[in-house]
Amino acid sequence: MAFVTSTLNPPSNRVPEGTGGSNAPEGFADRRTSAAGDDVTTNSSSLRNPVGLYVHIPFCEKKCHYCDFLSKPGSNQQMVDYLELLTKHASWHQKAVTLDSVFIGGGTPSALPVDLLQILVEKVVGGFEIYPEAEISFESNPESFTLEKARILRAGGVNRISFGNQSTNPEELKRLGRIHTRERATEAFDCARTAGFENINIDLIYGFPGHETSSWKRSMSDTIRQNPEHISAYCFILEDETHFSNLAATGSLKELDEDDQADLFELTMNTLRDAGYDPYEISNYAHPGFECVHNLKYWRQQEYLGIGLGAVSFIDGSRRSAARSLEEYRRQIHRERHWAWVEEPLERIERLKETIMMGLRTQSGVDLDTMAFSPISITERDQLTDILDPWVDKGLLERNGSAYTLTARGVFLSNEVFTDLV
Ligand SMILES: C[S@@+](CC[C@H](N)C(=O)[O-])C[C@H]1O[C@@H](n2cnc3c(N)ncnc32)[C@H](O)[C@@H]1O
Ligand code: SF4
Hints:
Elements: E1 31-33, E2 39-41, E3 51-57, H1 76-91, E4 98-106, H2 114-125, E5 129-140, H3 147-155, E6 160-166, H4 170-175, H5 182-194, E7 200-206, H6 213-226, E8 230-235, H7 243-249, H8 258-274, E9 278-281, E10 284-286, H9 293-299, E11 305-307, E12 312-315, E13 318-321, H10 326-335, E14 342-345, H11 348-360, E15 366-367, H12 378-393, E16 397-400, E17 403-406, H13 408-412, H14 414-419
Parallel strand pairs: 3-4, 3-11, 4-5, 5-6, 6-7, 7-8
Antiparallel strand pairs: 1-2, 8-10, 9-10, 12-13, 13-14, 15-17, 16-17
Helix pairs in contact: 1-2, 2-3, 6-8
The structure holds S-adenosylmethionine and iron/sulfur cluster (SF4).
């Protein structure tokens, strides 16, 4: 593919927090209305299987300077209490579903001590029926990932580790507020291999304030040399209520401009592709056959089940979120009001547009005839093609019958197409 570089927006990049991806539940339609008027699921035994599960672990050893995810440092007692809530939350669904993918994310799941990791893999995830070939991913930070933990995870059925390395430059790691060293990241990776993990992802971040191209090349080449099966390369976003946003408010943070970030995106795509990593999604690169099954479900807008603080489930075309405050989450779990949670219903046309946007992020694009929530009506098709076809004329989308993909130029300018879809 030939790319144009300048005057382009960098692509937005991350899988939304509190999600994983999945493939769920016809049975969630089976509801009654409680005396209080809340919508409560009474029978989850008719869920459509298989289902993907996201499990949120909201603890980190220290907050990084750029991150606004739902996570913070926690004491051992807080972790013990949380695992109890999670075990109860999981028990609501364990008899009803069979899993074909699991994503244990955060926060930093590897920050849990070994006894709680054991509970997590044996009682929370292990309490579900899981297909033998299911992908079970576990997010880890280098500072807390040890050989002992790797072995517990492997024995518990986890078969994919996702490391948050971010950079291999010691000075940058400090600037980003990370607490691991590049040497520790290599050791953690080696522990995972020693324990038998054959599917490893490394997360990197680029385009943050002051990020030098030469340093990014080095982080990528160091990472490629380690030969993980998968690399996620996220373009920096200045998030509110982070240390970086506080610095920006005082004028002491100089962000890279969008052209510079777009140049780094092009460099990333070319470098990783030349090294044998297929760019199957805007921020995700994999050796053939190692695409993240769980996240692909998310990008395909399939339904999913989420458990834990702030975890989102996408069911019957609407999203339901568990509370984001621990006190409120505890109340929800103790009251056993399974789905009486914050609901974000989507109009059908919004849902279709969102499906298209998520599909376009992937290399295979989206087909109006076969995407989630199809078949679509003639009116809906007209509405959607009215939005999409002008981008074909502008060279950002390619159309093949009812199927659309981003062109090489469209990948760089994807935000422009996406703003038309929100
Ligand atoms: C929220 S973290 C959770 C996993 C793990 N704790 C870690 O630090 O990698 C998942 C990924 O989100 C990415 N991320 C978080 N905040 C970001 C931001 N402001 N801009 C771009 N990527 C971000 C990081 O690259 C990180 O690896
Ligand atoms: S990037 Fe990871 S370790 Fe850092 S604060 Fe966010 S979730 Fe925690």
